[in-house]
Design a protein that fits this description.
Order of helices and strands: EEEEEEEEEEEEEEEEEEHEEEEEEEEHEE
Strand content: 25-35%
Distance between the termini: 49 Å
Number of strands: 28
CATH topology: UDP N-Acetylglucosamine Acyltransferase, domain 1
Helix content: under 10%
CATH superfamily: Hexapeptide repeat proteins
CATH class: Mainly Beta
Structural class: mainly beta
Strand order of the largest sheet: 1-4-7-10-13-16-19-22
Shape: globular
């Protein structure tokens, strides 16, 4: 395990973790990681980032340089946070997610497995590379499984994006959106209660299973 920078007390790191991996890009040296981090095998933290307390990673997580992470961030197995990203306190990134360069994720937001961010409008063009910007995700927003979010898109605080959506335009705060392309379908506040959507499947003898009403 490399050690280039300041790592807080209480670090628990498996074998095969790299802390302070040197980036090839010219960035300020050093890495700051807050106390009580838990880093699982295969995690790579690049030098040049600022990470708060109690970071949790799954296996084979990569956090690139020039990122700023708040406290209590969780990033699970197989996910990559590319360089120049900002992630707020308590955000959770599930497995196999890709957070493109220059993306922002607000406090308490959640990315379900397989979420992909894009940040390059016209890949391969120099003018597009100069304007690269990933999505902006508001505080507490919930992004469903296998959602793709295109460059410059802003998703408002507390919004919910349904599974499999391709988000090409901004989504207001507190709105439920889904589809390809994703469109607003209603307000989060108007969602039916869980009890109205599911019922116990009495024919299953293992842990309780639920059957959707649709």
């Amino acid at each position: 395990m490399l050690s280039e920078g300041a790592v807080g007390e209480g670090l628990v790191a498996d074998d095969g973790v790299i802390v302070g991996y040197p980036p090839e890009r010219a960035v300020p040296a050093g890495l700051s990681v807050g106390r009580d981090a838990r880093l699982r095998s295969g995690t790579v933290l690049y030098a040049g980032s600022q990470i708060g307390a109690r970071l949790q990673t799954g296996h084979n997580v990569v956090i690139r340089e020039q990122c700023e992470l708040g406290d209590d961030v969780s990033i699970w197995s197989g996910s990559v946070v590319d360089y120049g990203c900002r992630i707020g306190d308590g955000a959770k990134i599930h497995t196999n997610c890709y957070v493109a360069q220059f993306s922002e994720i607000g406090a308490g937001a959640f990315l379900a497995p397989g979420v992909t961010f894009a940040n390059d409008l016209y890949p391969g063009r120099a003018d597009s590379a100069d304007a690269m910007t990933g999505p902006w995700i508001g505080a507490g927003a919930q992004i469903g499984v296998n959602v793709t979010i295109l460059p410059y898109v802003r998703i408002g605080a507390g919004a919910i994006i349904g599974a499999g959506a391709v988000v090409t335009r901004d989504v207001p705060a507190g709105v439920v959106a889904y589809g390809n392309p994703a469109v607003a379908r209603g307000a989060v506040a108007g969602l039916p209660a869980i009890a109205q959507r599911i019922e116990v499947d009495a024919g299953v003898e293992s842990r309780p299973r639920w059957r959707s009403h649709g």
